[in-house]
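In keeping with the milestone schedule agreed at the kick-off meeting, the structural modelling team has produced records for the first pair of proteins. Each record is given below as a sequence line and a structure-token line. The laboratory manager (R.T.) confirmed that both were archived under the project's standard naming scheme.
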Amino acid sequence: MPDVICDTSPLQYLYQLEILSVFQSLVQRIIVPPAVVKELEVGRALGVNLPDPIALDWVTVRSPAGAAVLPLTMELGPGETEVLALALESTDALVILDDALARQVAAALSIRFRGTLGLLLDAKEAGLVLAITPLLNQLQALGFRLHSATREAILDLAGEV
């Protein structure tokens, strides 16, 4: 099984949808870098409903070996940068992230990636959720950016058109 390395937003949104256990069911274990732990900690301090990955026994916190290992654009946040750095240090990695620029960088570096919406599709296929439509509605209410064409494509893939 590949190293599954997760950024902040998939943890945030699955937690806020109250289906974080689905993530664990799909991948068993994930790795998060310290920057993701810090981003979630800062959000919790501001009163945002976010998980504490340190309290989850199926999450491992791992630092990238080299801070300068990744020659990335300055537009990436610390979480995305450390997630991609960890992926480059792995022989077999799958990164879970939603940020469009981070996904472009992952593709350019030949790093496999998936996002929150892909996890929802996986969860439906595995029978862990019954329907994607209400989850997409909740995601959008939480501020998740979802273009109408993407929404339609996801619902089509989920067989909910």
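The second protein of the pair:
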Amino acid sequence: MIVYDKQVLQNEALVDEADALFKGGFISKDQKKFIEKELPVLKSQNNILVRIGFFLLGSMLYGSICGMVSLFGINSEHIYFQICFYIFATIGFGGSELLGRQHFHSHGLDDAFMLGTILNVGCALGITTDGYEIIVALFVSIAALYMFLRYLHVLSMLVFCLAVTAFLFFGMFEFGDIGKAILPFTAMIFAGAFYFLTKKLINDLKESYYYNGLLLANSFCLVLFYLSCNYLVVRELSAELLGVEVKPGTDIPFAFFFYAFTFIVPIVYLVQALKRKDRIMLWMSFLAIAFSIYTIRFYHSLLPIEVALTLGGVVLFAIAYFSIKKLKEKESGLTFKPDRINHSDSLLNAEALVVASTFGMKPEVKTVSPMEFGDGGFSGGGAGGSF
């Protein structure tokens, strides 16, 4: 399914481990350069600004090809308009395949063709179905998932998550007011189930190729789970979708549940993040706590804004100060000291990398000695005492 050579992907993982070991001080700069020289890797671009530049260049290239094709069908305007986006999507698939076989990955050029392909698939289905959202969301999610599985395109996984969520929402809209009323609970259940599914896939993952995409999907589920029953989100969507007008002295149905959910879930995220030492969940818990405070202030102004910001700053400073003071001397577990290694499994390949950089051999090479030691059978005394 994956377009890239598996050996090149393994080399990519080894080079990443070498970079982590270099940053941790376990190997020298020369050893790192030697490893990068000896192991061919994918054509990627780590500089985000350069990658954006290549993305713009790829977009112009993609647009130019589509524009040139359009010159041949512009005479039959109505018929061509019905099929042109299918042609553009086909061009995008072809360009993505060509760049993938040339080992372009997260480079910018490939981003333009892959994201452009997904966009054109959506436009094509939108024209064919007269804007039937649920069908458009379904086929966009399929196209995005294919791009991720085939080309390991992490941005396509994000598009897949958004498209699947849109498919769920539009599907619930098909049930009318009942579907709209139970939408928060449906989204909450969906996010929870999708979270545990992606977590299981990550735990059972034997190859690291899909790890980043699954981690993104797993993190997306945490965001969706919290927002699905956040009081502010539910109340505003109720007003938008159901026309519910909350008059003074009244509230939305199940308001107590949504209030409790808004504050309990960030605390659960925080506790689980500290327990599992999960950095992504820790940051999400901080953002969720901040959004929960904003939710309350959006409807209930307990203090003037300047007083609230000042008190909030004092509390955050106090928490940060005492946390640093308590954790700065800890050597393991939750600690304030910087990580020497960003990835927890970096040391697993340390020996192979050191061997490769020291002796000039690839990690998979094994040396078999022609000598058989023991009993002094070759050139020295052994257990048998013979020469």
